[in-house]
Design goal:
This protein has 152 residues and is mainly beta. The protein has one domain: Sandwich (Jelly Rolls), CATH 2.60.120.10. The chain is built from 2 helices and 12 strands. The chain has a 5-stranded antiparallel β-sheet with strand order 1-2-9-4-7, with no helix packed on it. The protein has a 5-stranded antiparallel β-sheet with strand order 6-5-8-3-12. It has a two-stranded antiparallel sheet with strand order 10-11. β5 and β6 form a beta hairpin.
Length: 152
Amino acid sequence: MPKERFLVLQPGERRPGRVPLPPGCDVKARTADTEGRLAILENQLDVDIPPHTHHHADEFVYVLDGAMEVDVDGTTHRLTPGMCALLPHGIPHALRNASQPPARCLQISAPGGWEEFVEDLCEAGPAIRKGGQPDLDRLNEIGAKYGMEYHG
């Protein structure tokens, strides 16, 4: 392992990115840090993530605080601190907060790219919502670059 890739972050510290991410969304390892192998984000689940499919990346979610629900194949799985879920590529799924304060989790994407998708969403701003709901057409425009597809 090249020494220049060695990385230690303090509690609350995040990796800098192309654009500032909102509070509660902290990049712990960027795709570039891992030579494309993975990306790690610590997220507070402030908004529900509608049904979607990752066509290339596997997603791993580990709950740190609170509770969240993961919908897969018509079944809702409630995850609490210490629980995790592997969401393989090609499997449609949705994520929902199920606690107050909102759930906090680690999300690992392999291969990486997840943090770049989140940055693109932040750049799009309010355009990703229509009438208070996620704009699936706009999400799919942004997600196509990352092999993601949102479902109605």
